[in-house]
Pyridoxal-phosphate dependent enzyme (Gilvirhabdus luticola), 344 residues
Amino acid sequence: MKYKNQVFDNVLDLVGNTPLIKLNNMTSDFKGKYFAKVEAFNPGHSSKDRIALFIIEQAEKRGLLKPGDTIIETTSGNTGFSIAMVSIIKGYDCVLAVSSKSSADKIDMLKTMGAKVYVCPAHVSADDPRSYYQVAKRLHEEIKGSVYINQYFNELNIDAHYYSTGPEIWKQTEGKITHLVACSGTGGTISGTAKYLKEQNPAIKVIGVDAFGSVIKKYHETREFDEKEIYPYRIEGLGKNLIPSATDFDQIDDFVKVTDEESAHTARQIAKTEGLFVGYTSGAAMQAIKQLNEVDQFKENDIVVVIFPDHGSRYMSKIYSDKWMSEQGFFDSINEVAAEKIQY
Ligand code: PMP
């Protein structure tokens, strides 16, 4: 039942329909208008609420889930939180295999939301039995009646954004969007949103954001897996050491690579200048926009939508900790001119 006056049956009724917020200060020197799709307004504080709810409801429709069954996933945290939230409301058990790169805050949050969490080493290959992919696969085989969400290789991940994020952005910009800028992890957000938007207007340019240390940009250019691209980096949820089938590379026009350091500073700058307390990959996406402006990518009449995937509270022990920033050496390279520019 739907209630009036902002009264809801349960928290899941609040998934999606996130606001588009104009960026006024950070982009004042840039050509074009910039709007952020702020996914922290989802009840689980990230875009992953959309895929958790969509994929679980699709499994229900196909008769794969009954109350008390187990949902399994590999996750850097956000998807796990969203699955845990959906599981509580719908009466499922939630089991998560998490990378050791995830922040302690995220892991504690998942446990608080009732999930059983397995922490797996981050810097092993995907086919290593200790990797979170292999651990999840093994648990899926062991637990009877379990459903494995498998967000990197589940094309329903693309559909979730095709049916929600894409139409919302089209409606919110009244069809005037010219560019979409979004981080690519599983690739579900950028692929599904781009697919819907390009169906409405094929001229819309879609720019993916990738990390140095990830294989995604190179694969987009060559369609070849180049192991030499892979090395450890700090941003969680962006880029990959494998090619996810939840990324539809044909929907993406270009990729931009960003560094851990610049993305961290840009995330802090978003908070200081726009009053938006968002996560590390929001900083990465905005950093890509800065780099695109340096090469004069945008024109005066462009309407650029950038996706801010999650909330800043998940990074208190990382990019929003001065101690962590110093330990990474992220303050070392800031000279006075740069410091003034980023308004510390
Ligand atoms: N930002 C964050 C914080 C994420 O957790 C993810 C998902 N791994 C992304 C961006 C990328 O979204 P997608 O997986 O849809 O490409």
The pocket of 4'-deoxy-4'-aminopyridoxal-5'-phosphate is lined by residues 76, 78, 183-190, 237-238, 279, 281, 309-310 (CB under 6 Å). The radius of gyration is 19 Å.
